[in-house]
Design brief:
Elements (H helix, E strand, L loop, with lengths): L3 E8 L3 E3 L15 H13 E7 H10 L7 H9 L1 E5 L11 E4 L2 H10 L4 E5 L2 H9 L5 E7 L7 E2 L10 E8 L5 E7 L4
Parallel strand pairs: 1-6, 1-7, 3-4, 3-6, 4-5
Antiparallel strand pairs: 2-8, 7-10, 9-10
Helix pairs in contact: 1-3
Length: 186
């Protein structure tokens, strides 16, 4: 059985982007050797990336022509990708396909053999998968910034989700990388 892992960067006050889509300038406060290494690790650990439509469109616009990204660019462009959308008809980024029912699709994919499935960005998608109990782990980088406003990573939920800390690390620039599994803390 495969794991579904939600990965994102968020500000200390809980935002994964500013008030406008792709307002991600705060990521520069966290990026450094530790996140580069972690990104390369994701490429080895995973074999599928899942994005909501807006995140997919942003990633598809950036990664094919990204410069100075080395192994991260290579895996981002080669790994299998799902774009979750009810409006997109086709996904043109290499090795991508569109799905309109992410819950059914991910239930099927999680039951199969394979590597980790990652959801990058995509807060609304994460909220819907969280509601269905499909997320196995959260890996979050807390960026040492108070943005003041924006789009919160975690949306209002109708249930409590208990988490167990697996690991934590602090980057030289003050970013904190947290890894949680679903389940009660010991």
């Amino acid at each position: 059985m495969r794991k579904l892992v939600a990965w994102n960067l968020m500000t200390l006050d809980g935002y994964f982007e500013g008030e406008k889509p792709w307002d991600l300038e705060f990521h520069n406060h966290a990026w450094g050797p530790e996140l580069r290494e972690l990104s390369e690790q994701f490429g080895k650990e995973g074999d599928l990336l899942v994005f909501g439509r807006r995140t997919y469109e942003g990633m598809a616009a950036y990664w094919p022509t990204a410069e100075n990204e080395g192994p991260v660019k290579d895996y981002m462009n080669s790994i299998a990708k799902l774009a979750v959308s009810k409006t997109m008809k086709e996904a043109t980024w290499n090795n991508s396909r569109v799905v309109s029912d992410p819950v059914a699709e991910l239930k099927t994919l999680k039951a199969q053999d394979g590597k980790t499935i990652f959801v990058f960005g995509s807060a609304e998608l994460i909220a819907s998968l969280m509601k269905e109990g499909l997320i196995d782990e959260y890996r979050i980088c807390i960026v040492p910034v108070l943005l003041g406003s924006g789009n919160p990573l975690f949306k209002t939920a109708d249930q409590v989700t208990e988490l167990k800390l697996v690991s934590s690390a602090t980057a030289a620039n003050g970013a904190v990388i947290l890894h949680y599994e679903i389940g009660k803390a010991a």
